[in-house]
Amino acid sequence: MAETKPNKKSLILKILILAVILIAIAAIWFVKNGDATKDVTEPNAESTQAVESGKAATSEDQDADFALEAEAIDLAALFAYKLPIIIDFGSDSCIPCQEMAPVLQSANEDYQGKAIIKFVDVWKYTDAAKNFPVQVIPTQVFFNADGTPYVPSDDLGIEFGFYSTKDTQEHVFTVHQGGLTAEQMSKILADMGARA
Question: Is the pTM of this model over 0.90?
Fold first, then answer.
């Protein structure tokens, strides 16, 4: 009989330890899943507006997408807005870029919600331009509201460059090298279908 008492105590101790471990696992599961359930069942005002408008972007995403300065360019996110896009690759330290800075700033302010105007400092964010045909700065890259490369009208009087893929000859980029004046920027945006 003396031998069974230590075995009973050992068995009870093992069961208690197992029960404590199971309770701890269950508590962790409820804490993690309880927060996830709360997020899903209690949406905030921003996410409700995004769902109602049919856009998945939060207001923070939209603010960043419409801000002039960018560290990187996410074309898919920008194309989702269905607006004309102008991306200027330059630098805060380049004289022609400095001359164009007020033009970009003004266009970004005047065309909020009607076009997306972006500026990337390629000396600060060198990787941001790696998928674009930037040979000199400033260089602007243009996209139509449907995400296709912009094809300018003949009467604009502005020189553009066109880039195509080597294998299929598909037009993938329309660019302008050098600075643009405010008048030229307005002409291009009007030609792209944006009105201030």
Answer: no
